[in-house]
Structure formats: C-alpha cells, structure tokens
Amino acid sequence: MTRTKLSTADVVDAAVVLADEDGLDAVSLAAIARRLGVQTPSLYSHVRDLAALRDAMTERALGELGARISLAIAGCSGGEALHGFADAHRAFARDCPGRWEALQRRAGEAVAASQAARTVVALTSAVLRGYALAEEEHVHAIRLIGSTINGFITLEARGSFDHTNPAPDASWQRTVEALDTLLRHWPTDTTHPEETR
To answer: Which of 33, 132, 140, 158 has the fewest C-beta atoms under 10 angstroms from its C-beta?
Structure first.
C-alpha cells in the first residue's frame, strides 16, 4: 500500500491534535513523526524546526479562533458583540486547549503579520466600534480586554475557581458585563498628571 504524500497541513494537523490531547509541551518533532509514521528527518521538508511548527500551530489557532469570533459577533454591536467575542474565546479554550496554549506563546513576526492575525485584530476593532472610544484609545482597550479574558480563562483552566461558589459561569458574566460598563464609560481625559506640570 502506497502512503499518501505528507503535506505541511498534515504535520500541523497532527501537532494541534496532539497539543489538544496532551498539551503544547508534548509537541515535539519526534512525537509528530511517530504519530504520522515517518522518520523525524522527513518533517524538515515541511517545517524548519520546532519553533516554526509551533508558529504554524499558532497561526492555525488564530484562524480557527477568528472564524468563531466572526460567527459570534455577526449582526451584533456593543455589549452583545463583546459577549459574543469573549464567549468565543472561552469556548475555543475549552474545546481546543492545546491550540489555546499555542495562542499564549510569543510567536514569530510572520505569524503577527499573517492574514489570520489581521483578521482577529479586525474583528476586535469591529467590537470596539460599538463604543464611543477615540481611535488612539483602542490599543489600551484591546490590551484590557485581552488581559481580562485571558486571565479569567487561564485561572479557570488551572482549577482556581473549583472550590468556591458561585460557579465560574456567574463570574464570567459579571466580568464581561463589567468590561462592557468600562468601555461605555471610558475616561475621556487621557492626560497624564506629569504632562500638566
């Protein structure tokens, strides 16, 4: 029986599935080669090294997350869009934990410039357009939203909320509602005290 020719997509497929099953740290070129039934050197015609493979995983995860966000915020604005945006992140982290881990690493410049990354940025900007924020404030709002969502998801995944009541879902709703309130009442005077001296 002739083996189907291996592609880069096959290698990345195997890597993200392994990451979801066993965690991002379990992904190595040797582990992927075993999973695909090939020798490790066979992978080098598809990925330069482990860092390149993980970059490819991050780009794949960005693309998949972007698709979820797009569906979640379609036809929405303001708080409804923010809830859809946040819920898409949380569901992705639960459904694809290894891919979510791949999003938490520092990726290469090519990933940051990829279409997948640009799509997620554009979708985030679309959510912010539902609020009366000056354009120059968007970067601060994006950092706040990302820090809050990622922080909650990370703590939840580690079991930090397992031994207290109420259930995390209630706190999640409060957290997103608090973000919505903050975005709707974003400070308009952004002058730093030292700039007025």
So the answer is: 158
Question: Quick check: 51 pLDDT over 80?
Answer: yes
Residue 155 has pLDDT above 90, yes or no: yes
Residue 84, SS3? helix
Instruction: Establish whether the linkage from the previous residue to 166 is cis, with ω within 30° of 0.
Output: yes
Dihedral sign of CA atoms 42, 48, 51, 56 in order: negative
Regarding pTM above 0.85, the answer is: yes
What single-letter DSSP state applies at residue 28?
A: -
Residues 120-154 as b/e (b if ≥16 CB within 10 A, e otherwise) read: beebbebbbebbebeeebbeebeeebeebbeebbe
What homologous superfamily is domain 58-188 in, according to CATH?
Tetracycline Repressor, domain 2 (1.10.357.10)
